[in-house]
Amino acid sequence: MPSFNEITAAQLGRLVGLPEAPAIVDVRTDEDAAADPRSIPGAVRRDWPRAGEWAREFAGRRAVFVCQRGLKLSQGAAAWARHEGVEAEVLEGGFEGWKAAGGTLLRTGRLPPRDAAGRTVWVTRHRPKVDRVACPWLIRRFVDPAAVFLFVAPSEVPAVAERFGATPFDIEGVEWSHRGECCTFDTMLQEWGLDTEALSRLAAIVRGADTARADLAPQAAGLLAVSLGLSRMHKDDLAQLDAGMAVYAALYRWCRDAVDETHNWPTPAKGAVVP
C-alpha cells in the first residue's frame, strides 16, 4: 500500500491524458534515462540536483515525481516541491514500477528538438478542422504539455518551420503527416508508441472524419460536423484549438471508459416489459 505521499502506477495511469492530470516530473539520473530513454506520457525531465531551483515552477499544482525506483531522488525532489507549495507525490516503484505494471511508454527518441524554453514548437496550415486539432490535443496531453502550435498560411508553412525552428505537420512532404490511408494522428501514435486501445479507437474516428470515410467509425460523421461547426464559430485558430481540446477530451474518455454504455429516454418504469 502506498504511503500518504505516494501514488500507484494504476492510479496515475487513470489520470494520464486527462485535463486534470498532474504534472509528471521525471528526475531519473542521466544514466538511467539513457539506459531506457522512453518516458511516462506527458512527463517533463528535470535535473534532480537543482530541485531547489526549479521546484517553484509547479507551485499551486499537483505533481508526481518519478525516479528509477521511487526512492531517494523522487522523495527528495517531492520534498523540495512541497516546500514551494506543490501538492507533490512520488510514483510508487518509480519508473521500474510503471514498466512492471504495463504502463504506456512514450518513445522520446522520436520527438522533435525543443526550443530554449524546453518546448516543442509545431507549425501547420491555418483554419484547422480535424487532424490539425486532434494532433495538438495528443501532443499536449501525452507528449509535451507546454507545446507551442503556430497556424500560418499553407504556402508559408515550410518557410516558417525553417526560420522559426518549428516542426511542420499535416502538410504534404513532411515526416509528421498522412501515410497511405492513415492520417497524421495515426502517424504520431505509431511513432511514439502510443497506440493503446483507447487511442487507437479514437484514431479510427479521427481518420474517418479527416479522410471522408465515415464508414470507419459511427462517431466520425459527428466529429466532422462538430469540427466544421467550431471552424465557423471561431475566427482565431488558437481559440478554435482551445474549444477543440474539450471535444477530444470527451471523445477520449468515451473511447477509454464508456464504449459499452448506452442511453435511452424515457427510462422504462421499474418492472416494465421492454419489447
Question: In words, what does this structure look like?
Answer:
This protein starts with 5 loop residues before the first strand and ends in a 17-residue tail after the last helix. The protein has eleven helices and eight strands. The mean pLDDT is 95. It has helices spanning 9-13, 30-35, 51-54, 72-83, 94-100, 131-142, 157-164, 184-192, 197-210, 220-233, 237-258; strands spanning 6-7, 23-26, 44-45, 62-66, 87-91, 121-125, 148-152, 167-168. The protein has a five-stranded parallel β-sheet with strand order 1-5-4-2-3. A three-stranded parallel β-sheet has the order 7-6-8, with helices on one face. The radius of gyration is 21 Å and the shape is globular.
Q: Give a count of the beta strands, DSSP E runs of length 2 or more.
A: 8
Please mark out the parts with pLDDT under 50 across 5 or more consecutive residues, or reply none: none
How does the overall form come out from the CA principal axes? globular
Portion in strands: 5-15%
The main pleated sheet reads as: 5 strands, parallel
Discrete helix count: 11
Oligomeric form: single chain
Order of helices and strands: EHEHEHEHEHEHEHEHHHH
Q: Structural class, please? A: alpha/beta
Rg, nearest Å: 21 Å
What average pLDDT do the residues reach? 95
Order of strands across the main sheet? 1-5-4-2-3
Helix percent band: 40-55%
Distance between the termini: 48 Å
